[in-house]
Design goal:
This protein folds into 2 domains: 63 residues; 283 residues, Alpha-Beta Barrel (TIM Barrel), CATH 3.20.20. It contains 13 helices and 14 strands. The longest helix is centred in the middle third of the chain and has 18 residues. Strands 3-4-5-6-9-10-11-12-13-14 form a 10-stranded mixed β-sheet, with helices on both faces. The chain starts with 11 loop residues before the first strand and ends in a 9-residue tail after the last helix. The chain has 371 residues and is of the alpha/beta class. The structure holds iron/sulfur cluster. The site of iron/sulfur cluster has 13 residues, from helix 5.
Length: 371
Amino acid sequence: MPSSPPTATSPLPAGAWRPDALVATLHAAGLRPMQARDAAKVWMNGYHRDHLDRAAALALVPPVQARFLAPLLLEDRPLLAVEEVIAADQTRRLLWQTHDGLVIESVIIPADNGQRVTLCVSSQVGCGRRCAFCETGRLGLVRNLGVDEIAAQFRLASQLWNRVRGQLPAISNVVFMGMGEPLDNLENVLNAIALLTHDWTYGLSARKVSVSTVGVAQKFAAFFAGTQANLALSLNAPDDARRSELMPVNQRVSMADLKAALVAHLPRGRSVLVEYILFAGLNDAPADAELLRAWLDGVPARLNLIPANPGPDPRLQSPTHEAVWAFQKQLLDAGVRVMVRYPHGRDVGGACGQLAGAHRQKRGHNEVSHG
Ligand code: SF4
């Protein structure tokens, strides 16, 4: 993540430009700084905020500046809505087809009794991390998503949501918890966050953007240097043996090393959200709560307990409500900041990747495949 505005030497898909990069590139191409800034602002307002297409937004720019701008803006790669499934709790799971015929998913999640609406986005097609509880992990990594493809999930989902939301608020929060490990596509994820949070585009607050990772420790420094967005760490086990079984990433970075990297790189005054999926009989015993408390000791963290959704491994089941409550109470009594978060949209597919996984099976594995 460069500290000065990045410039591009070749055109990009229209929806892939960060505002600061577009200004810098227009300036490098010969426009004066104010001309470059004005042209980029007018075009981005039209394209992102007013949802115009590339050409219509370009028509708003004075002709002198538009001559510099037009060659930099390739036509966007289309993202087509192919399926929408609405759950009883009004969660909407959206499937998109990419320009090369692959399938990704986003999820619109109304929460807090309709006070807040969050969009869960994908950062990759498939995922190479192969967590045992995740459908997406079964697909393997197909490719990274581009900045335009990540931002388009927000743009298109917002348009869809605005047509149907009635009195409910617009989408204000974004979580990178869909398909993919975001830190494996860090540059594009950071550029997409910079785009989504800019005043000229959607003006999201970076504090309302969360990036969920299995713990790619060597990317923590670059992540915190590149954004004010929140980091969420998917922990899910109280010791190395069980975490390595559930999450192969742990075979390379132990929980002790993960904790050390987190503490070393977390900026002063910021905290991390730790997510812990509870699996009946696997990681929900009182001794496990104590191991988890000990791991959290010294980490500025809030803890979310997530009762498991049905996943690809039938041995991984959700605990009873009583077991979840007992686990939470033990941690609360020990002074841990802990909440239980029940997954939204359980009736239309559970954990990340499940809808795309189900769609792939139904359609004969055509959309998502290696190569
Ligand atoms: S849980 Fe996340 S990181 Fe793990 S396989 Fe699924 S998408 Fe990848």
